Structures are given as structure tokens and as C-alpha cells.
Amino acid sequence: MKGTSYQDKAWFDRVTQPLLVVLSGPSGAGKDAVLGLMRELGYPFEYITTVTTRPRRAGEKGDIDYCFTSAESFQEMIEHEELLEWANVYGNWYGVPREPLKQALAKGKDVVVKVDIQGAAAIKKILPQAVSIFLMPASIEELVARLKQRHTESPFDLDLRLRTAEEETKKLSLFDYVVINKQGGIRRAVADIKAIVTAEKCRVAARRVSL
């Protein structure tokens, strides 16, 4: 019986190493919509739900879009070291729960987390082998239109988010990949993310994420 070669073992090790995909981008880039379509299409990821203290928007579902909690409970999670990273964004707290992420990686599952730019930078410092993707619209005009369509921001908040988005796009160099989410082109954006994952699985030197 023919034995398994070193090359076979190396290939198997490469394709079975779980990936941690960090999806980020400016407010209004369409991160939630992209993740929603990935779920709908059955992409085999473990989706880690971010914890936040911000109010729930119309149509959002708890434990799917976000885990909504109080400021007091969020502080307790910080004190008990239950969050991998956390940040205050536009006056609300957001954080990535540590244990679900750790369990998914231990089971060999590819994981995706959605965070803001601060969160992506923090995760890269903690887990440098994570695959970071910057999602952005095709133009600033498109971003303005999306934010206005949400009807969730005051004129002041809208202006703040746009100014912040301009600063965030200057941090592209912190990321491994950029995906353009054009208006009406969400399926292409999701396909690009799938292609990135496929390419990462074909790396000669597999990324090893250990938490």
C-alpha cells in the first residue's frame, strides 16, 4: 500500500487550516448586506456576532446582526476578559466575543468577523495571521446615498460618518485585500470574498491562527 508523501501531508495541512476573515470598512459600505448574502448562499463560515451597546435599527435581528446589550453588561464582559477586542464607535461600544471565536477555530472552521477599522487593526495586532478585507463602495457619492437611504443618521451624524470614512480609506495599507461593493453589485463583492478565501487556501505557507 502506497504511503502518504510529505507533499500530501503539507497539502492537507494547508487546506485544513481554519481561516479567520476580518471584514471591515466604512459605515455604509454594505458589510451587513454582504454577510447576509453569504449566509443566504450557504457559505461555510462560522459567523461571529459582534456585541454592541447601540440601539437596534429597524429590521435588525438580535444575535444575527448584532448581540445587543447594555453598557453595564458590556463593561462586565471587558472586566471578565470575554472580548477579544472592543472600541467605542460613534458613541457606542462594539466588541468581538472571544469564546465563540476560539471554539470555532478549535473545531477547524473558517470564521468571519465584522468589525470597524479600529477593531480590524486591533485584531491584526493580536492575531497577525488573520485575513483582513476592506469593503468599500465605488465612490463617495455612492456612500452618501446609502447612508441617506438608511434614515438612521441626523445631518450632523451623516457628516461625521462621511468625514470618518475619508480618513478610514487612508488606512487601506493595513489590510490584505480590498473589495469594491458597487451599488447593485453585491453578488460580485461576495464572489470576490469567496475568491480571496480560495486563494488563501492555496497558499504554500498556510496561515495559522491560534487563540
Q: How many H/I helical runs?
A: 8
Q: How far from one another are the termini?
A: 38 Å
Spans with pLDDT under 50 lasting ≥5 residues? none
The second-level CATH architecture is 3-Layer(aba) Sandwich
Helix content: 40-55%
Name the CATH class. Answer: Alpha Beta
Mean pLDDT: 88
Write the CATH homologous superfamily. Answer: P-loop containing nucleotide triphosphate hydrolases
Cα Rg: 18 Å
DSSP E strands, number: 9
Shape: globular
Percentage of residues in strands: 15-25%
Order of helices and strands: HEHEEEHEEHEHEHHEH
Give the spatial strand order of the biggest sheet. 2-7-1-8-9
Q: Can you put this structure into words, describing what you see?
A:
- With 211 residues, this protein is an alpha/beta fold.
- It has a single domain, classed as Rossmann fold, CATH 3.40.50.300.
- The chain is 43% helix and 18% strand.
- The chain has eight helices and nine strands.
- The protein has helices spanning 6-16, 31-40, 71-79, 98-106, 117-126, 140-150, 155-168, 186-201; strands spanning 20-24, 46-48, 51-52, 67-68, 83-89, 92-97, 111-114, 131-136, 177-180.
- The strands form two sheets. Strands 2-7-1-8-9 form a five-stranded parallel beta sheet, with helices on both faces. It has a four-stranded mixed beta sheet with strand order 4-3-6-5.
- A hairpin with a 2-residue loop joins β5 (83-89) and β6 (92-97).
- α2 (31-40) packs across α8 (186-201).
- The longest helix has 16 residues, at 186-201.
- It is globular.
- The protein starts with 5 loop residues before the first helix and ends in a 10-residue tail after the last helix.
- The model has no long low-confidence stretch (mean pLDDT 88).
